[in-house]
Amino acid sequence: MVNDFQSAYQEEKQRLTQVMEEIDRRLQKLRSVPVYTGHDFTEQALEAGREERRQALSKSVHEPYFGRLDFEEKGKGERKPLYIGKIGVDREEVGEYPLVIDWRAPVASLFYSFTGGQDLASYEAPEGLIEGLVYLKRNVVIRQQILERVADTYKRESDEPAVSDEFLVYRLGENKDNRLRDIVSTIQAEQDQIIRAERSKALVIQGVAGSGKTTVALHRLAFLLYQYKEQVSAEKMIIFAPNHMFLDYISDVLPELGVGSIQQRTFNDWALGILDTEFQTAPAEEALQTWFEAGTNRPAVDETTPGRFKGALVFMRLLEGYVQQLEPLSVPEGDFSPWDGAVLARKEILHWFNEEYKPYPLAKRTERVLARIHRWIEMELKKPVSAVVLKERKKKAAQREKAYAKKWPRFEAVTMYKQLFQAVKGQPVPSSIMDEIPVNVLKQTAADLKKNVLREEDLPALVYLHVLTHDIDSGSRFDHVVIDEAQDFSPFHTALLDLFVKGHSFTILGDLSQGIHEYKGVHSWDEVGSLFNSGDTGYFALTRSYRSTLEIIEFANVILERGVRSGITAVPVFRSGDPVRVLPYGPQGRREHLLSALRELAGKEYRTVSVLTRTLREAEELHAYFLEQGMDIHLIDGSMKQYEGGLSVLPVYLSKGLEFDAVIVADADEQHYAPDAMDAKLLYVGCTRALHELWLLYSERLPAYVEA
Ligand SMILES: Nc1ncnc2c1ncn2[C@@H]1O[C@H](COP(=O)(O)OP(=O)(O)OP(=O)(O)O)[C@@H](O)[C@H]1O
Q1: pLDDT tier at 547 (50, 70, 90 boundaries)?
Q2: Which of 194, 185, 242, 244 is nearest to 218 (CA)?
Q3: How many other C-beta atoms lie within 10 A of the C-beta of residue 43?
Q4: Among 56, 236, 385, 462, which lies 20 to 30 A Cα-Cα from 182?
Q5: H or E element that contains 170
């Protein structure tokens, strides 16, 4: 065994030296070509290609590949070692296998999809299905040109028929810093299937906590860009994530995968960009405090909850009805007269508006009719009159045209939205529309709008009003859209984005068990799936959790089973660690106990440790206390733009999406976590943030869904 390992190591070391020399030689050759700085278009394009290769090779030379797969294609009788890396490197000889195969290439899919056994393996190539036998699957860790580790996870000749998890477990055991990382060397078969799924469908992925949803989504974007390079462009792909800190946390993955320019945004920022408005939405913290206040005072959630109603398709349809009824009100009363004696009859203007320009949305129609009126004036001015009269007419016409244009509605989204809700005070919105809006929603929104307050939940409606009246310009369309944490997106959000996406090309990922924003999100994936025809959508489930140890996952699963009763529990990868500690506060007192726990965990080798509180106020208080005690610790509140790593204290609801080497859940007791599904979900989110160690500290009694 030891000998086997040594010879494998020697073999890989030799091969690595050869590959690095070859890459280096190619790099030197490219660098020796003088950089073109002239104006010739063809030369510029050639230079851009050379620069791209220079950059790729100089990245690749440090860590050229991470895996090897020995494959014998059926009927070819030749076993080939295929080396797979983040960046593909072709050989100079035509027709030869690449020196390094890009992880996204069709043949590389074997490295991920092959799960063992003696049977033929296969992959989809452009020329059809290719079958063959896999002889070896090997992971190779290279850091800064040094071969650090060689691990065989499958050998055809051995007694072990399946691909082993050993290398994956080694990777998962590493500590994490303040950024999400790529997983190209250990993508699992179930994840690979999603990454490589066809582009044109709306994929809905339910994945348990830590199943790699965010990571998979980012790898999928990189894959789509490689596989469909002719049809998609990075600038027209977007990933929506819940907040700026989360965007910062995931921001390294795409550059690590060699992909730039993909948009990474919050829905809020995108929507405000489309609306091009001065308005800002009310700070999210206000809503968070209402919904995440500890205790049982939270408002009940039903279909009349403002976030749920304004996210429903019923509301979307109401807005369509509302815009339809604006049509007959658009053309101002009365004929248009540019100067006394010249008249353009309203009947004629109505004809242009209602017949000739009917296919256009209202704002476009208005624009065209006004341009036509302008042309009509110019024709009228051509009629023969004296220079003095002409001058007088021109002056009058300019004034009256301006005044007339002002009488037309501008179809500005916020104004239309205000008019809709201020109809409570007798504006002309038909009762068929008003009666459909729940009274509490009408009242609250009218009061907000009176104070010029917009909320995040109003944004889909505002963008839709804009789209209905202005249409979508081609620059705003997407080739592919990823929605992460999609359980917090309403059906209206997704239906709206669908208008901006070519061919329903979506990747929608989330976890209903982490649906802590149930006051605005979906309660079942059918709410999303039903937006698309069955042929346009696909559903995947990710059930294995890669983040946490076996002990943590089993502990969190109990919270799900007893508290949420969702049935979507996680299957752990066999990575064992310390038992979860559930401890009552000791005699030294709450804060002091939390401090000593934090000190103990911070004293270990971990890079990130967090204390999760139930509310923001508690996080602030503890943060001040920890600072006072000399700890170097960050407070994370809803306004953070960056995630710093190290030690942090934050309310549990802001921890969603993040992960820490060790987590201390403060106050894991009945006073803080009520006996309902919502609080059980919160605690589940908190517990599943931990990679290696999880401690829960409490006073008096634990909630019934926590295993002592
Ligand atoms: N195949 C894999 N190999 C190595 N690490 C993996 C793999 N899949 C996921 N991980 C790791 O598991 C952790 C969780 O991944 P990620 O945050 O993408 O999961 P998620 O499903 O979005 O989680 P959550 O919903 O709980 O926020 C990350 O540290 C990620 O690197």
Answers
A1: very high
A2: 194
A3: 12
A4: 236
A5: helix 166-172
| Burial class of residue 403 in the structure, from the number of CB atoms within 10 Å of its CB (0-12 exposed, 13-18 middle, 19+ buried) | exposed
Sequential DSSP letters for 472-491: --GGG-BSEEEESSGGGS-H
Ligand 1 pocket by Cβ (under 6 Å): 168, 171-172, 176, 181, 183, 186-188, 191, 207, 209-215, 511, 514, 546-547, 657, 659, 688
Query: How far is ligand 1, taken at its centre, from the CA of residue 101, in Å?
Result: 24
- Residue among 112, 176, 215, 549 whose CB has most ligand 1 atoms within 8 A, to mutate: 215
Q: For residue range 583-634, list pLDDT tens digits in order.
A: 999 888 999 999 999 999 999 989 999 999 999 999 999 999 999 999 999 9
**Burial grade of 184 (CB within 10 A; 0-12, 13-18, 19 or more):** buried
Start-to-end CA distance of the chain, whole Å, equals: 44
If we measure between CA atoms, which residue out of 306, 309, 348, 354 comes closest to residue 330? 354
- In ligand 1, the atom with minimum distance to the C-alpha of 188 is 1
Please check whether residue 123 is in contact with residue 131, taking contact to mean a CB–CB distance below 8 angstroms.
no
Q: By alpha-carbon position, which residue is closest to atom 3 of ligand 1?
A: 186
Q: How far is CA 561 from CA 6, 664, 705, in A?
A: 47, 22, 8
Least confident of 150-159, 192-201, 620-629: 150-159
| Binding-site entries for ATP | 207-214
The predicted complex's ipTM stands at 0.99
Q: What is the pTM of this model?
A: 0.91
Residue closest via CA to ligand 1's atom 29 equals 547
Q: What angle do CA 374, 377, 380 make, to 5 degrees?
A: 155
State in Å: Cα 594 to ligand 1 middle. Answer: 28
Atom of ligand 1 nearest to the CA of 514: 25
Amino acid 492 reads F
SS3 366: helix
- The CA distance from 315 to 262, in Å, is 31
CA distance 545 to 206: 12
CA of 412 to the centre of ligand 1 (A): 42
Q: Which of 139, 165, 183 to mutate to test the pocket of ligand 1 (most atoms within 8 A of CB)?
A: 183
Annotated binding site: 207-214
